[in-house]
Amino acid sequence: MIFDKKAELNVLINLAASDSQVAEREAKLIHMIGKANGLSVDEINQMIANPKPISNVTALTTDQKFEHLYYLIQLMKMDGQVFRSEIVFCEQIAEKLGYKKGVVAEISQHVYSDPSITADRDMIRKKADKYMRA
């Protein structure tokens, strides 16, 4: 299966909108990720204005699942406020990705809201893998 970057970005948009609005810092991260994956500003704005329901993510590789989870948690922290609705949404997506929902609390302490701060992704990945359902 080819990983669909629009579908990944759509999940991030759904997370950003889970507290009823997309904050400016969240929108900037969404734009940064979208542009890095070859999407135009118009395409990204259209996706933000009209998010689609989240598609089936179970066919992703384990690497893709981890990246998805990492970006979700990074986006959740992006606006400096973490709402319960965002945590619940991340936990729901984590479960759809095949993780136990406790993975969100475990790895969120190691994921920074600022994409320029480099986290030890190997260490985070090992922690996340412990929460993968068999």
UniProtKB/TrEMBL annotation:
InterPro entries: TerB-like. It comes from the Bacteria. This is TerB family tellurite resistance protein.
